[in-house]
């Protein structure tokens, strides 16, 4: 092995508190600590997994990283620059390097736009490509995700869940980003389709030298795709390590509980029968 | 062909279901055969649109006709063909001897009524429509019946693991977490003293740790009440852990069924193999996940023979002729595929 790759993204003591209002006059009566002092770092070209159950704060972290949500405190250092201190214009440019694929392929594509417009939108915003050149780039992207030219002028409702997720991925890689945040990208899909999408993500990562932040509650998927994993519980990271170590020698109690609850598709390993 | 056990509790024979939609007629069930013995848990697995939910709904006759239509088939429950029963007779089975729980416990409870009101309603209704007055008996006053129903509801809530049920029963559904709501629905299902529980994706909306608790509860109830469970799910891990039997559905057919051990250890149908290879295991190396190429077929004009043929790596000319009949590989293992038995080239 050569020297370790440099860090692409470093998150330091990130927090997001939401005020909790109630009582007379709806005054603030406390805070909800959705993300409470989270730190981790992702090396270039690697896949970092963020695992947690519903309400643990994993999606809030993703939204803070993209500044779709304003963090309450902390630092987000992307390629050496603190995203929270960048001027607006500079942040806009940097955003092209960070993209996201959402969980629900039925909700994350505008039903009134054609595939060309959906995948072309980031290109229109960030590049001078228009007209024929734009179509050519969209076709190229479609082919990269296993679709083709014939889908250019179709609408989202004409596609299956797996195909829609491919469109979402094509949109995410349109600007040659460095980091892609994958927020439960296969949770809404059937396992046979999930396998196709995981393979596509793996292929694209090697071909385009992408770095992934993979958010999931599915430990099997995380183990398959990630180099490092952090487990998050109630807004805090309870354990972070190389994937193999997390799965073979977990130290945190929560990790052990989650691993024990993960259903293994083998009738010999039933915790209920015995 | 099928293993002959004495009078299975549920015996679905050659069930066909068409559903009329705007675009045409969907041939959603294409000759489903299933047998579930008493006290057994059968996992009905398959992917979106394979007909597993409609099979479950057909057993309790909850598919509206029209738009649904059953061209052929029989569903025998405890010696009676439910396809020929009147709605009045179905009312005595559904919610009583055949109970159901569903994926989303939030939408199956009425948000504006207390748990107690909803459970007492169900209990009283069951008692009224039972020939012998059910567990309440005939003689109690209206008030006495209500109190008895409430006591019964509290006992069942406690039984399914809701602590302090005597107080919690007066809460509203939103005061319960997802896992707790599913427990409430299980308790409600038990009010009718069912023999068959149809559980349609009961843990899909839950976190894995809560899922484990609900599965543990279901498993204990099966043992205690000698319940038969038809567990409808797409999660093969869940099936492997709690089911005795497995039936794998694809596009309206049961393509493989048998004991969980056989189906998971020596899957025979190419689709079952593909499904099992789609799940990443600790041994799967990156890039080696197989998946099943292609997409599910259009059910308005399904493939003429085996519906899996267009995606099958072993497709042969014979596969396009007619759907293969089930072949017994072992006493507890059947597969519907031309690769096996007399259809073998």
Mean pLDDT of chain B: 90
Instruction: Show unreliable segments of chain A.
Output: none
Shape of chain A: globular
What integer value in Å does the Rg of chain A equal? Answer: 20 Å
Tell me the helix content of chain B: 25-40%
Given helix and strand content, the structural type of chain A is alpha/beta
Characterize the main sheet of chain A: 6 strands, mixed
Main attributes of the structure:
heterodimer, A: 274 residues, alpha/beta, 9 helices, 10 strands, 35% helix, B: 345 residues, 8-stranded mixed β-sheet, 21% strand, disordered N terminus
Please describe what this structure looks like.
The complex is a heterodimer of chains A (274) and B (345). By secondary structure, chain A is an alpha/beta fold. Chain A is built from nine helices and ten strands. In chain A, strand 1 (7-22) and strand 2 form a beta hairpin. The longest helix of chain A is centred in the C-terminal third of the chain and has 18 residues, at 191-208. Chain A starts with 6 loop residues before the first strand and ends in a 13-residue tail after the last helix. The longest helix of chain B has 18 residues, at 142-159. With 345 residues, chain B is α/β, with parallel strands linked by helices. In chain B, the strands form two sheets. Chain B has an eight-stranded mixed β-sheet, with helices on both faces. Chain B is built from ten helices and 13 strands. The radius of gyration of chain B is 21 Å and the shape is globular. Classes of the chains: A alpha/beta (274), B alpha/beta (345). Chain A binds chain B through residues 53-54, 160-163, 190-196, 198-199, 202-203, 217, 219-221, 223-225, 247, 257-258, 260-267, 269-273, and chain B through 47-48, 207-209, 211-212, 215-216, 219, 234-242, 260-261, 264-265, 274-282, 284, 286-287, 289-293, 295-296.
